[in-house]
Structure formats: C-alpha cells, structure tokens
Amino acid sequence: MKLVVLDAKTLGKDAELSGFKKYGEVTFYKNTTQEDIIERLKDADIAISNKVKINKKTMESCPNLKLICITATGMDIIDLEAAKKRDIEVKNVAGYSTHSVAQHTFALVLELLTHVSYYDKFVKDGGWIKSAIFTHIDNPIREIYGKKWGIIGFGAIGKEVAKIAQAFGADVWYYSTSGKNQDNKFPNTSLEELLSKSDIVSIHAPKNDKTRGLIGKKELDLMKKDALLINVGRGGIIDEVALKDALENEQIYAGLDVLEIEPMSPNAPLKDLKFKDRLVITPHVAWASIEARKTLIEKTYKNIEDFLQK
Questions:
Q1: Residues 222, 196: contact at Cβ < 8 Å?
Q2: Catalytic-residue membership of 219
Q3: Which residue out of 204, 234, 278, 293 is catalytically annotated?
Q4: Is-catalytic flag, 234?
Q5: 274, 300 Cβ separation under 8 angstroms
Q6: Number of Cβ within a 10 Å radius of residue 180
Q7: Stated pTM of the model
Q8: What pLDDT, in 10s, does the model give residues 63-87?
C-alpha cells in the first residue's frame, strides 16, 4: 500500500506519525495545496488529510485511491458523493477531542471573566513592584458561579461543558440545533430565550444548513449587556461583521477559537477592534490537546486496519 499524509503539520510538530509505516510505503507532506494534490496522490492507495480538500477531479485523477482517512470529525472536505461513486471509502474520527474542546471553552470563559493575561502582564511589567498597596483590581473580575449558561448544540461536547459549568455553580440550559440531542438533566429552550436570558452562551454545533449564520445582528441584539459569547464549534455560525459591531458598541464579550475563513484573513472583520479586551481569540486549537491528538492518530490507525482487514 502507498499512503500519503497530505498535511502532517496540522497534527503538531510533536505528533508521532511513524505508525503509518506499518501499513505500507508512506510519504509525509507538511501541507498540500490544491495545485499539488493530484501529483501527490496520483499513485496513492490511501490518503490521510486533516483539512486538505479532496474533490471529484482529484479522485478521477487518482485511480489507485481506495481509502481517505480524515484526521478530524468533520467530513466536509471530501466530496462524499464522488467518493461513493468511485467506491472510495471515507473514514473520519469522532469523539476524540471532547475533553480538549470542553477545557478550551473554559479557558476562554475564564480569561474573559478573570483577565489572567492582563494581571500577569501587570506583574511582569513591574506594576506590582511599583504598587503602594498589596493588590491591583483595575480590571473587574466576575464569577461563573450563579450565572445563567446557555449552550447551543448539545452533542457530546455540549453535554460535557454543561456538566463542568454546573460544577462551577452555573445554571445551565441548552438549545439543540438539530432537535435530536435531548437531555432530561437540563432544560431545553428556544434560541431566542437562551440568548436573551443567558450570561454566558457557548456554541458547540457543527456548521450545516441549520447553523450557518445562526447568530447574526438580530440574535446578538437579544443578548444581555456584557454577556459572553463563546464559539468553539465552527466558523460561519456567527456573522463576524455583526459581532464586530456588537463588540465595538460594548454590548458583549466574545471568545472564539474558529473563524469563517481560516487561517485568519488580513481583511478579517475581527482583526482590528476598537475595544480589544472584549475579544479573546485563539487559532483553532480547542481540539488539539496532546492527549486528544494522540487519540486521533490512534483511531486513524484503527480506521486503516479495519479497512485492510476487509
């Protein structure tokens, strides 16, 4: 078997990928552009991709291709209909990053509520040495305890966040974007009520026809003054132009790990903000704890083994 890993760099420089070699001859590429993909896959039996798109044209030009392994949960990078017609099996990995994404959700929330980076910088810049008093609380700190926490998307990650938020003392409720994920432990509500009454709103939904543009100006205007909006789901669920307006009008705070265009565009609406302290943004890393990536790679190996044993 000839295997090609199209974007190994996305799995981290510390990722151990040598296990792919036990399945055949492996070629590793740090990243692959659409211009290069056909040349790189032309003799491949198995393609491994995280975010490199494999379309109908690529499949038609790569006659040996039998299996596409996605090192992620989302399958939107693959033309699934074209793969089915050519009898190319497509396998993804689900459930590997639940704890990692939940943890990152709280990292964003806690940064917005407690401003750890601000206080760390104050001390390291010498502010505490110069202080006439023992403390410095110029950037107000708020608690999760007692807050109303609304969760949009109530799959495995949403449920994990609900459990942790409840442990912090938050009052949790949710809105299921699919209508399929129900949980009697927490109340279900409409999107409008959740947005208008929650102090913290976190998004844990996939991007699809039901969620694309789900949070626009109308929805943002429903939110409470100084509420937190967290998105660790997918970019494109929030209208970023409307969000910029809400942040610059000092309506809400936001913590994001995803954008509609990734990597971030030089012209991204959220690149330059008037009130930068109202936004915390990370480069799509919520999924990527060491433990989650190790599980992801192991499950990808298992997908290959299952395919080869058929």
A1: yes
A2: no
A3: 234
A4: yes
A5: no
A6: 8
A7: 0.94
A8: 999 999 999 998 989 999 999 999 9
